[in-house]
Amino acid sequence: MSPREDFRDRALVAELARRLRPLASGPVTLMEVCGTHTMAVARFGLKALLPPGVRLVSGPGCPVCVTAQADIDAFLALGSLPEVVLATFGDMVRVPGSTTSLEEERARGAAVQVVYSPLDAVDLARRRPDRQVVFFAVGFETTMPATALALKSAAAGRVDNFSVFCVHKTMPPALRALLASGEVRVQGLLLPGHVATIIGAGAFDFLPREFGLPCVVTGFEPVDLLLGVEALLRQHQEGRAEVANAYPRAVRREANPQAAALLAEVFAPADAAWRGLGLIPRSGVALTEAYAGWDARRRFADTLAGVPPAPPRACRCGEVLRGVLAPPECPLFGAACTPSRPQGPCMVSGEGACAAAFRYERA
To answer: What CATH number does the domain located at 26-305 have?
Structure first.
């Protein structure tokens, strides 16, 4: 960014902060759904620019954080098999399971490989035909196309020693479950721009229709986020509820047709367990029959059948993900739970609310 562009953005941020003040006539709680939004809000200190009475809370938008404890334990169990290499994104390495983590298992000799894309895991399997490479497929609609392309590549190249442990999740069912519970009271949602680039802004139309909530899809820069807040406050002030798009340079109302076709070929809707939200019908995906041969859950069914249920933990990440607990309100925050000694995924992930609050918002 040039000095002129930086100055222009700073001036626009200041202008937006001024424009927000007359739009807040009383207490308003807004939820930013996306974990990248959560980190950006904390990093840029945007809460300090909000009018009095306007509060931002975080929702279930961190894919690492919402991965169920039982799924983490199951993936860890595969590392006990001598022929298996566990391939994962870096954020997952330090997430604690019930008794251990990928980082700890790697120190004990398990084969754990950090990759930067699912296709890297396929390449690893090609280079190591003597090992079974299992990729931990974590993420929302944003990362699902990359996993689908990896599966298509493995199938086309007959890379039979590659498989996917799929814990991908879809955002709309989770938001419906969260709002239907009545546990969290919000007056508007900042919707995830990355997810909307895949499924389109129209996929969220049920939110104003079923729950009467103003919603805005927005991007990730300070100007994007403040424009989103402004649009939400205007809807709230005027008594409107609709899905607005404050990220038109990347998001359209309709789904991306190429991505939609790819996902329909490789994935089918399935029930999924979410940390903090429980089992949500059709909120995840499973591999279609055409790709069942690369499904790690089927390939290693005997090993996974012996994984015990996940015991409860003192970590209150689930409540943070539901927006009913702010990170500093957890008794472990900043004491027993820090980035160097995380007790839960919200303190580990680069999109975690606890990590954002610890890094940027501690007094």
So the answer is: 3.40.50.11740
